[in-house]
Recover the amino acids of this structure.
């Protein structure tokens, strides 16, 4: 089982490798990837350095080119693909059928993984992607562990799961909530609830967080004010105010590790290319230790309190959940 | 483009069978040329079964409507794939594929299909690929605009000479997202596994507002919809220029008069609370006056 960690810059990438990641995934600094944030991601020179660093340490580099090409602009996605192939990245993470088709035709030897943004949730959809010679599918965070197990027994394609980090509760790649409020979505511009639309506003004793003018939440002095990701706001339904879609919480599947190993899951993915090098370092260390322990003897696997406290501390709202993997969550 | 056809989209809410039957009886008498039928939102909804839909489909077809059988959007189990296979046996109708599993199946069976709005087609290359697999019509993702559609058509024309019909979601609560979680059950503090099909209590959804009272979303089971009705009635001219079919999606049968407003040559005024932002390449919730 591969431990796949995020990096938004070279510093984070080195922290990940030095802390025990088997592979790191990154994006280029444009809207060809779904974490297109200012100050984040890699230019051509940095991409080359990233590949060199990973390969010197006998680790793998995955590059996400996982947004959808705009009409008449495919050359930008093509350029991103050519750049990544040229430096010898180990895998491309791709969602757009145009991009998958291009890679299959022009770089048939390049390893390709189907991005979570492609929203593949069943065996027949996996079959669809086989025509592009893909090796692996990244599953959306909507399946229960029972459903993942069923899929793992029916397909010969490698499966990659999100193991830890911010929790996207919608089927990724099929959510237009962000463009509904801002005009920009992960599919079209590579960002959900983009930072340029965020405004913090002190109103009396309350701190309000707004997205493109829409009030997403407001916080009293003793509450931690979270980023206004629009599905994690407090809204009103029939005069009841609550987190109508989801609490600000993070996914943490540490307790499922023995099961994931038994299912032969190819890779566990840590979310957070937008997070700090310190986050990457600490999460990687915990997951490395946990995977090593589980591999040694999965029967005896137990979560060390220190792992849990480190991960909770790094989590959104300092809360974690098993998300959809746990049926009751639904 | 030729005259804009009007299609009645699949009913996205969980309605009682008798109500749904009355709805299709009314649709039969309407001027809509095309009708989509089937459960597209939640695999647990079973108030109306495939056999019921087939009875209505037959009646609608006899009344001269083009009938399209719509498939589920989020398929998460092999049981749901079996349902999809059962649906695909009714080859006398066109199918709407709402997931790539359906595209794959219909391609294997050599059957023509419509690409539904929750499949990610953002460029002409992707549409050309689907055309070669059997797609004859494409319903654009709801977040895309008139300009995007035009650009995509140009790209498609350069790549592929297979005929393609273009359909645009033009009226109704916009389907914006699908989740593992049922938000209606969450409102009632019910686990999804014991949901009691609670969404039937909200046959036009549960409106969610900001703390300032602004309508934001409409909760419909696992689907999150726009909190306002999307309405392109004032954009009929530009719709006719670039699209073949306007999809109207209803939240109750009293709304069916909108078919007439889209069919007639007169331009009907959009109610001020209805939105049209996506078509004009601005935030969906906004309006271009």
């Amino acid at each position: 089982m591969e431990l796949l960690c995020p990096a938004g810059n070279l510093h984070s990438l080195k922290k990940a490798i030095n802390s025990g990641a088997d592979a790191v995934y990154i994006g280029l600094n444009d809207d060809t990837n779904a974490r297109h944030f200012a100050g984040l991601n890699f230019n051509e020179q940095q991409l080359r350095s990233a590949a060199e660093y990973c390969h010197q340490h006998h680790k793998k580099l995955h590059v996400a080119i996982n947004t959808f090409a705009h009409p008449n602009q495919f050359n930008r996605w093509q350029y991103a693909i050519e750049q990544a192939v040229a430096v010898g990245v180990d895998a491309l993470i791709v969602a757009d059928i145009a991009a998958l088709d291009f890679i299959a035709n022009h770089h048939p030897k390049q390893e390709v993984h189907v991005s979570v943004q492609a929203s593949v949730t069943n065996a027949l959809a996996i079959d669809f992607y086989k025509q592009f010679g893909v090796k692996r599918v990244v599953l959306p965070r909507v399946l229960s562990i029972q459903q993942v197990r069923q899929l793992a027994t029916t397909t010969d394609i490698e499966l990659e799961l999100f193991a830890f980090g911010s929790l996207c509760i919608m089927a990724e790649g099929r959510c237009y909530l962000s463009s509904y409020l801002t005009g920009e979505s992960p599919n079209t511009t590579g960002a959900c609830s983009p930072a340029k639309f965020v405004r913090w506003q002190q109103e009396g004793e309350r701190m309000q967080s707004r997205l493109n003018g829409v009030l997403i939440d407001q916080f009293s002095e003793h509450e931690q004010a979270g980023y206004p990701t629009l599905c994690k706001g407090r809204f009103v339904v029939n005069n009841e105010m609550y987190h109508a879609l989801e609490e600000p919480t993070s996914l943490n599947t540490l307790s499922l590790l023995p099961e994931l190993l038994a299912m032969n899951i190819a890779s566990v993915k840590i979310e957070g290319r937008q997070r700090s090098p310190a986050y990457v370092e600490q999460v990687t260390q915990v997951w490395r230790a946990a995977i090593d322990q589980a591999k040694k003897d999965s029967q005896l696997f137990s979560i060390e309190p220190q792992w849990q406290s480190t991960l909770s501390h790094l989590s959104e709202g300092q809360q974690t959940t098993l998300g959809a993997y746990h049926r009751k969550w639904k | 483009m030729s005259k804009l056809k009007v299609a009645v989209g699949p009913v996205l809410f969980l309605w009682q069978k008798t109500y749904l039957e009355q709805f299709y009886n009314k649709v039969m008498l309407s001027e809509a040329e095309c009708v989509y039928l089937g459960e597209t939102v939640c695999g647990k909804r079973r108030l109306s079964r495939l056999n019921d839909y087939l009875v209505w489909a037959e009646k609608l077809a006899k009344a001269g409507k083009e009938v399209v059988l719509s498939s589920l959007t989020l398929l998460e189990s092999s049981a749901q794939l079996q349902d999809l296979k059962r649906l695909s046996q009714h080859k006398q109708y066109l199918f709407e594929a709402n997931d790539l599993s359906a595209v794959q199946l219909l391609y294997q069976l050599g059957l023509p299909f419509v690409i539904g709005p929750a499949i990610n087609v953002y460029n002409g290359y992707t549409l050309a690929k689907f055309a070669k697999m059997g797609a004859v019509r494409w319903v654009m993702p709801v977040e895309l605009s008139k300009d995007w559609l035009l650009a995509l058509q140009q790209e498609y024309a350069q790549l592929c000479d297979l005929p393609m019909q273009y359909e645009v979601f033009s009226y109704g609560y916009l389907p914006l997202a699908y989740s593992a979680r049922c938000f209606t059950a969450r409102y009632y503090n019910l686990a999804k596994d014991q949901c009691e099909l609670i969404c039937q209590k909200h046959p036009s959804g549960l409106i969610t507002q900001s703390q300032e009272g602004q309508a934001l979303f409409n909760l419909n089971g696992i689907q999150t919809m726009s909190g306002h009705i999307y309405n392109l009635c004032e954009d009929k001219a530009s719709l006719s220029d670039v699209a073949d079919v306007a999809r109207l999606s209803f939240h109750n049968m009293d709304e069916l008069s909108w078919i007439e407003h889209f069919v007639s040559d007169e331009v009907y005024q959009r109610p001020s609370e209805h939105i049209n932002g996506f078509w004009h390449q601005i935030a969906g919730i906004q309006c271009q006056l």
